Amino acid sequence: MSQIQLAKYNTVKYDFKEGYATVPVLVDVYDQARFAHCALQPGHSISPELFSVTEHNQLFVFTKGKGYITTPRRAWNIIEPGVFVPEFDKETFTITCSTDSREPLEFLHIVTELNDYDKTCLVESRMTLPRFRTINEGWTYEEDFKDNSVTTSMMLLEHRNLGRLSMGCVKGVGPFEIGQHIHNELAQWYFPLPGSEFIYTAAGEEVKMTGGDLSFTPTGFWHGSIVEENKTCDYIWFEMCVDGYPGEIK
Prior knowledge:
The protein is mostly beta strands.
């Protein structure tokens, strides 16, 4: 059985109703997280369902189009890829596609289950929410399995600050490789940004990924990426530390 589960973006067909469409992907692949490609047509808005801090966590990863997010207290413009995390059910929020956007506002909606570790850590200590952080606002970091002179890595959601969840972005233009590495405690998803094209490898398998695809790799498998000359490799990684980070709960 293949260890890489892949949802191809070119199979996503939006059926707009009142300006909004949503298409679930990787359904029943991993019972701790649900994913859906979503799109809003220009001039339309949605106010997503709210979840309490004991129900679910949810994230919105924006990739295409222009728009904005509003709460009763704050507002953020969406003019480049980024991630939004609401403050659970503390306040409503609305996502709008700008009337002058030349294309629908597209985003990946992620809803995760909360275990006892999440329910404890999200109350005791977490990042300040709501948060909207674009890729260019992420702080940079380096890893020894990458050539950090030709890739740039940005942290979007820090480990140990949102329960079991974390998220970042890697950007670069080939040729280069993301060296083989392993996460024994982290389930991981790759989400290439528009215009990207690279070969993702895991457990000896290879799959071609392009913008909008979504892959899932379970814990405990060596994985990496191969990027050909002049190909863009910009992708979001999303991780869940399956049993929680050691030492976080007293």
